[in-house]
């Protein structure tokens, strides 16, 4: 098989015999490659905004020679780029926090409806430029879980729907019981995602639009964070998407974490 990598050693066994030892290092090599890719991605992501910031700082060496309009633009671009770096660092920190906190900490009751109320307020602010119709249908279901992780799950999925759907779309957000489980779902009528990308969206730094400088995408860490937080809650992200029609991102929290009234 071509997909297996072996590390082979030959050792003397007796006068006329040798021992051939073969170790399957496929997984080890894959992990090593993932680690290298991760470091390369982080470096690239930080380098782009840094280059812009440095360019402006050089220009600002002589601010008197800059027309006021250019100065205003420089300050606003610098603000934008430093926001981008801040977001990236926040996202990296939340991934690494989740890597460390692998123990179950479900003694906490999370009041999902009140959390979704804040998500809704943030969504309405984000929606000002897009003018989507946002429909929320939130049932009073509480669960055991980790508050920060669940908040970032909800807000990532809702803000992605707002961000990627063309203006005047319709986005439907529901939190309800399906059988004994609780289900959260965000349905949009945005561009949809080609099937070959769907299975890879939760990989760290994976984006459908590969252009790092594209205005459309973020860092590609959002859904990796969602997936990691959901795994912690014994769940996984499901994605149904049809190009040209829209996408539905959803997951279920199983009955042992749902608080029965
Ligand atoms: P990003 O920071 O790029 O938004 P995510 O991990 O949140 O990273 O999403 C990964 C990719 O999935 C995005 O770059 C985008 O191409 C695609 N995507 C996510 N949500 C949607 C959506 N609701 N509609 C269409 N594409 C989406």
Automatic annotation (TrEMBL):
It is found in: Cell membrane. One of its GO terms (biological process) is cellular response to phosphate starvation. Its EC number is 2.7.13.3. GO terms for cellular component: plasma membrane. It catalyses: ATP + protein L-histidine = ADP + protein N-phospho-L-histidine. One of its GO terms (molecular function) is phosphorelay sensor kinase activity. Member of the two-component regulatory system PhoR/PhoB involved in the phosphate regulon genes expression. PhoR may function as a membrane-associated protein kinase that phosphorylates PhoB in response to environmental signals. This is Phosphate regulon sensor protein PhoR. The gene is phoR.
């Amino acid at each position: 098989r071509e997909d297996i990598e072996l590390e082979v050693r030959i050792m003397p066994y007796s006068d006329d015999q040798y021992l051939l030892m073969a170790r399957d290092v496929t997984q080890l090599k894959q992990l090593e490659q993932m680690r290298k890719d991760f470091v390369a991605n982080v470096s690239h992501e930080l380098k782009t905004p840094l280059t812009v910031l440095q360019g402006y700082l050089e220009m600002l060496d002589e601010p008197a020679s800059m027309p006021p309009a250019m100065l205003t633009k420089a300050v606003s671009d610098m603000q934008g780029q430093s926001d981008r770096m801040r977001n990236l660092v926040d996202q990296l920190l939340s991934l690494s926090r989740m890597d460390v906190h692998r123990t179950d900490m479900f003694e906490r009751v999370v009041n999902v409806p009140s959390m979704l109320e804040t998500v809704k307020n943030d969504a309405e602010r984000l929606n000002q430029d897009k003018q989507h119709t946002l429909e929320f249908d939130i049932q009073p279901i509480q669960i055991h879980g980790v508050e920060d992780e669940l908040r970032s799950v909800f807000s990532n999925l809702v803000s992605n729907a707002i961000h990627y759907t063309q203006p005047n779309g319709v986005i439907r957000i529901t939190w309800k019981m399906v059988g004994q489980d609780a289900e959260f779902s965000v349905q949009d009528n945005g561009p949809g995602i080609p099937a070959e990308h769907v299975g890879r969206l939760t990989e760290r730094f994976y984006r459908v639009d590969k252009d790092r400088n594209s205005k459309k995408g973020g860092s590609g860490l959002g859904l990796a964070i969602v997936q990691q937080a959901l795994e912690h809650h014994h769940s996984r992200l499901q994605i149904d998407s049809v190009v040209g029609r829209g996408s539905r991102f959803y997951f279920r929290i199983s009955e042992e974490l749902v608080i029965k009234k």
